[in-house]
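JOB MANIFEST
job_type = single_chain_structure
chain_count = 1
residues = 153
[input]
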Amino acid sequence: MTAESLLKLYEEHRGKVSDKWHFYLEEYDRILSAYREEPVRILEIGVQNGGSLEIWAKYFPNAQVIVGCDNNPKCGELVFQDERISVVIGDINANETYEELSAIIPEPSIIIDDGSHKSSDIIKTFARYFPLLQQGGEYIIEDLHCSYWQDYE
């Protein structure tokens, strides 16, 4: 049986909204397909509506844990049917948030930074979380084009 592409999972998804750009999905498939059946641990920074967490759960059927982190308290109200999914509310670079995340998801296999898109935040987050990444894992930063925009530093 051939696994469905990430693009197809996004197109068929019903539930919480996810707004990943379509051209990202082919790249995610290319980069992450080798991990599909692995017992990965995923940290996604920037949750918004929570839809991508649900889609990651479908894409990675054997994922051990899928944790989202967002500083928007409304994201704490999200409820997921899949017990592998959870959300931590807090500033990704605050010590308390770091301690909570590293306790829930030690040595993540995949880290996806879809947070503030501000250059200073991206750099701080990478410096803090990359050392936690599992050997051979993937660290992905979305929307780096924002670094060319004044509002994003």
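[summary]
The first helix runs from residue 6 to 12.
The radius of gyration is 15 Å.
exit_status = 0
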